[in-house]
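Format notes (please read before filing issues)

Several people have asked whether sequences and structure tokens are stored in separate files. They are not. Every record keeps both together, in the order shown below: the sequence lines, then the token lines. Line labels are part of the format and must not be stripped during preprocessing.
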Amino acid sequence: MSHGFFDKTRGGLIVSCQALPEEPLHSSYIMSRMAYAAMLGGASGIRANTVSDIKAIKETVNLPIIGIIKKDYPDSDVYITPTMDEVDELVKADVDVIAMDATSRRRPGGKTIAEIFPAIRRKYPDQLFMADCATYSDAVQAKELGFDIIGTTLCGYTPETRDISIPDLNLIEKLCSTLDMPIIAEGGIWSPETLTEVMSIPGIFAAVVGSAITRPMEITKRFVRAIRHN
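Then the structure lines:
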């Protein structure tokens, strides 16, 4: 596994190309075209969900991929790469980075990330792992556990962070100034102006933008709300 991921994505824009089953663009082919459009637009990497989407994207673009598998389990709110099973699938798909929910929430079977990640790290010592965090303490723990990259992906999406306005620039600044590892800002970046703010934080490694680029239904909703609030 090449760690050229860092050289290729440093200071760049990673575009998240995902569509859930209930969304109109749910299709591996469509996501591969989304990724191709992102590449032509200058994206330095792609974040993608499911092995089938990743396979289609890899056939279409030559960009580093952060892979996830979103899977719902009845006994857990954690759905971004929740267990070893999803990690195994992503390793077989040969993604550059595997992202996992690294919050303190209980995972399937009642396990915590601190309980399951050491075994994952031992099994795949050369694989890059990104910790999708909600809080500063999540990030500190992720670093201690041996994650390679910290992302702010889940800030604003957990019970204790639901009322926080995202992107949380204070959190990003704190992570960049105190943790000596790549920090990727993700979540709530809806405009080039916000992205400029995020990328001007000293020490920031890269940023992920998803909905604002690749989810036309959500983009349309925002414009419709703007009309209704007039």
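For reference, the curators noted about this record: The two ends are 52 Å apart (CA to CA). The chain has one domain: 5-228.
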